[in-house]
Design goal:
Blueprint: H1 2-18, E1 31-37, E2 42-50, E3 56-64, H2 67-80, H3 85-100, H4 114-123, H5 133-147, E4 152-154
Parallel strand pairs: 1-4
Antiparallel strand pairs: 1-2, 2-3
């Protein structure tokens, strides 16, 4: 079963890495931030469009990076559409904990979008490769910086 999960993880990473979703610069973005992972050279710009109710109506990105970084940004932009800022923050914190804490229990995200959680759990497989955690979380850190009004973020 572990091999099947690893194969699925690799398939998803390759699919999003080769054919990223929402790879564009939207004209009406209300928030943006530049993210940098100096360890492997990943650079991303995350664009978020919030409506008057603080709901994310659009999320997109541009930049260059490894397959994990691009795949994470691609998946993140799909997951965030329709979420509130608070929901986005909860998902960011949950995903970060999934990738960094050995004792993380996915039930801590009860009440969150189940499809989003399932997709994030799959991506959190980077925990097995600690050097890649910053690659997977760069887009999420950058998104959080964007909605908080920060224009630059680094994983350093």
């Amino acid at each position: 079963m572990f091999d099947d999960l690893r194969d699925l993880y690799q398939e998803v990473i390759l699919d999003h890495g080769k054919k990223p979703r929402n790879f564009r610069c939207p004209e009406n973005a209300t928030c943006l931030a530049h993210g940098n992972n100096p360890i492997c050279g990943d650079t991303l710009v995350i664009y978020i469009t919030l409506d008057g109710d603080e709901r994310i109506t659009d999320a997109a990105f541009q930049g260059e990076g490894c397959a994990i970084s691009v795949a994470s940004a691609s998946m993140m932009t799909e997951i965030l559409k329709g979420k509130t800022r608070a929901e986005a923050k909860t998902l960011f914190e949950g995903f970060h904990d999934m990738c960094t804490k050995d004792d993380f229990d996915v039930s801590q995200l009860a009440g969150c979008d189940e499809d989003a959680i399932e997709r994030l759990v799959m991506l959190s497989g980077v925990k097995e490769f600690p050097i890649r955690v910053k690659c997977a979380t760069l887009a999420w850190h950058t998104m959080q910086a964007a909605v908080e009004g920060d224009e630059e973020i680094s994983t350093e």
